[in-house]
Design brief:
The protein is built from 8 helices and 13 strands. With about 325 residues, it is of the alpha/beta class. The protein has a single domain (about 1-20, about 40-305), classed as Ribokinase (UDP-N-acetylmuramoyl-L-alanine:D-glutamate ligase, 3-Layer(aba) Sandwich). The longest helix has 16 residues, at about 270-285. The protein is globular and about 50 Å long.
């Protein structure tokens, strides 16, 4: 059950602001914004879209293959992958630049402000999907350097590999033509509801016209669940309920891992979405994006408790 992940590898510096951003931003003065937030917690975690998705996929007994780059500070991340039995065969290490880093501040309303330093990802061009020796059942093109997303999507498409396209934070960096091309090469498009509106605005395609270019559109709605749509049906996925909400960072990546682990097992779209929803709650119940843990029996139990259906993994 190999899933190839093209995306970022980064260190996340996660900070908690014990108030609401809205209380400190004056809308009519936004053109001269100059504000400082004093945080009461700071933690360094393993992150990046590729790392986060791979981590949860491995917990779900899939075989993630990460195609990415780390920097001169790679040792800590590589040891983490080795400890969790995640392949690092296709990860290259820069000898000149630090790894990518995300600086994420979350307020008490779970709003987030993120600054991202691309770091060693600037040296990632030249990684080729053609070098992958394993049999790949699914490819996810997740946010990273936009040129790399375009290159890897083209390579996967030319090899007839099914693609899930996750433009995420790179929607603004991609031109309308680039965004349309990437969607057209994919089997599935996944984004949150805000990002989906941006995609429609940038491509000029409405919700119905998207299906002229991609088979499956997955819209995540945070604590409201998700919607999985094809040209012929719309499936509303009820959210799983977390026992606590410690940190929403990484929930979306965990959802993608849950969905993909179901998809490569041959499950239907509804079951895949429900698996994504259950995987996501493990992430929000723990601080950081790769600090949650579970065994398959526990996942199956929470799935049954949430949806009243048995699942065998």
């Amino acid at each position: 059950m190999s899933v190839l992940i093209s995306g970022s590898l980064a260190y996340d510096y996660i900070m908690d602001f014990p108030d609401s951003f809205k209380n400190h931003i004056i809308p009519e003065q936004i053109h001269i914004l100059n504000v400082s937030f004093v945080v009461d917690q700071l933690k360094k975690n393993f992150g990046g879209t590729a790392g986060n998705i791979a981590y949860s996929l491995k917990l779900l007994d899939a075989d993630p293959i990460v195609l990415g780059t780390l920097g001169t500070d790679a040792d800590e991340y590589l040891k983490h992958f080795k400890k969790n039995h995640i392949k690092a065969d296709y990860i290259t290490v820069s000898q000149q630049m630090l790894s990518s880093s995300a600086y994420i501040t979350t307020d008490k309303d779970d709003n987030q402000i993120t600054a991202f330093y691309p770091g060693s990802s600037a040296e990632a061009l030249g990684h080729s999907i053609e070098s992958i020796k394993e049999t790949v059942q699914m490819v996810i093109i997740a946010p990273t350097k936009k040129e790399l997303m375009i290159e890897h999507a083209k390579q996967a498409y030319e090899q007839n590999m099914p693609i899930m396209f996750d433009p995420g934070q790179q929607i603004t960096a991609l031109s309308p033509r680039e965004l349309a091309l990437l969607i057209g090469q994919a089997k599935m498009l996944i984004a949150n509801d805000y990002e989906m509106k941006l995609i429609q605005q940038k491509t000029g395609w409405n919700a119905r016209e998207l299906f002229d270019h991609v088979e499956v559109v997955i819209t995540t709605l945070g604590e409201q669940g998700s919607i999985i749509a094809t040209k012929d049906e719309t499936i509303e996925i009820k959210p799983a309920r977390a026992q606590s909400v410690d940190d929403p960072t990484g929930a979306g990546d965990a959802y993608r891992a849950g969905f993909l682990s179901g998809y490569v097992r041959g499950f239907d779209l509804k079951t895949c979405g429900q698996m994504g929803s259950v995987a996501a709650i493990y992430a929000v119940e723990h601080y950081g994006t790769q600090n949650h843990d579970f065994i398959l029996e526990d996942f199956e139990r929470r799935y049954q408790e949430t949806y009243g259906e048995e699942i065998e993994l």
